[in-house]
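Quick question about two entries, pasted in order.
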Amino acid sequence: MSTVEEDGYSSRCDLCDTEVIHSMTELLLQGLATASVDSTTGDIFKSASSVAVAVKAELENYMLVRTEALVRESVVGDEDHSEQLMKASTRPTEFLSDLIDDFVALKKNVLSHVSGFLSSESRLNKIKDFMQKMETENVWALDARKATAETILVSIDMKCIFHCPERFVEQDKLADHRSQCKFRVVDCKNDGCSASFSAIHIEDHDSICPFKALPCDQLCEQHVMRCEMDRHCATVCPMKLINCPFYHVGCETAFPQGNLDNHCSKLLQTHMLYVLQATTRQNATVNDMNQRLQLLEKAQSLNEMSGALDVRSLTLIIKEQEAKIKKLEHDIKTQEAKMKKLENEFRSRNA
């Protein structure tokens, strides 16, 4: 961008924060999709695709006019507009989002208000699908959106937080400056990372880059990528603490796994003693188990004998009870016979 000054032509650097510009370009595409969908909802004669180009032109003009008006009013001393511009200068994406919301509200028809109230999820899905369609069909090219975003950002960034305001009369000096400007685009230097960003964010990116090689958290001599650190520390790191292989026989020492060979060679005799003691305990346990097994076998035999005796006793008791029952039945029959005889004698006398 060039501007005319008293001593001739001068050029501004105007490099911008790429992260902010990226966010603004996404907002622009979303705003166009939303306005196109909301302005044609329920209209059988129009579709979002049929109005997108016209709506894009309206949206660009609306944002530029609103931005210029805000800057102009703040310059002439309007306190409210000056305060708004200062807020916009520190939160440009929020400012742009508000502008787009205002434009979308103007484009909504009656049916879109109702349908948006009744089915917000359906509306959002339509907007998302139309955004993807516009990207595929290049309805609003990325470079064009970047140019619009940069124009708005440079206009409102009064504190020069997100763009470079430096001016140069000579083009070679401008070129030299841009090669060193804090807003120049740089690539991450960490092997495997493909991220690009403004130089002002080098430290921020470096602090979170998953491909950054860092000293091992467990202080081994290796440098490990941030994204591999957890796996390294939990598996192959020589400083990972492990238990002695002879832990189960008595050696409860824990040490870095890189010291395994040294530990085993130094404590060879101790480990052999642990093994011998464990073997002795195991033999004693085996003998004890054998003795217990023999006792269980004897107990089982006694239980079987006892069970046999119990069966015999129960059989005798049952036979005795059966005999008593038979005798009782015989006595009852005898008594019944006597009763019948007495009844017959009584009847014959009365007859």
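Here is the second entry:
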Amino acid sequence: MTSFFNRLTRHFASSSSIGVTSSGGGSSSALPANTELATVAAGCFWGVEHIYRKHFKDNGLIDARVGYIGGDKANPSYAKVCGGGTGHAEALQITFDPSKVSYRTLIEFLYKIHDPTTLNRQGADVGTQYRSGIFYHSEEQKKIAEDVTRMANQNWWNNKISTAIIGASDWWDAEKYHQRYLEHNPGGYECPLHYLRPFKLPEGYPAVEDSSEASKDSKPAAEEPKAEL
């Protein structure tokens, strides 16, 4: 049984925002110049958005939207996604400035802030909508996602990672009240597995053949956001 009922009751207990019947925001609009997209899933999207905003707000994050991806139904609603009938994952889509933060850094961060070893589950949140996933937008992103996943699997997660790496499909913004949910509802539900783990990058990583990617991703430690445990 999923935690859908619990999350609905948490929302009504803590929020004065629009109710669960609000319509979604539709698919993504055109990107601003000199920006890229990163789309990830890691369980309840409230906490995923909150922790990415907290750590990258002054380090290349332009915007972050929670929504639905990976399903086979148009115009999914929160109720339908949580019911498991649309195939969508709760996800976060980040618009970022690649001159300030690399895609590699954003994906490394993903593996630090959730448990990627529990298939279709984060803590008490159970169902395919809570699956761990990376939805790449280019072949370069796919290559980086696969490289980061190998590193994290071998060095951080004991070769148990179940995160899916697949091409990005249609994106649907979640309903208005989900956006910046934990900013508007400080006492709202947070998955207890959404926190920054003190993992260290292994020596010699990344072993990147392409020099442009190496220069973009190999930044001094001082430029990375500081861990707040």
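Reply: The CA atoms of residues 1 and 126 lie 7 Å apart. Residues 1-6, 8-28, 217-229 have pLDDT under 50 and may be disordered. Hope that helps.
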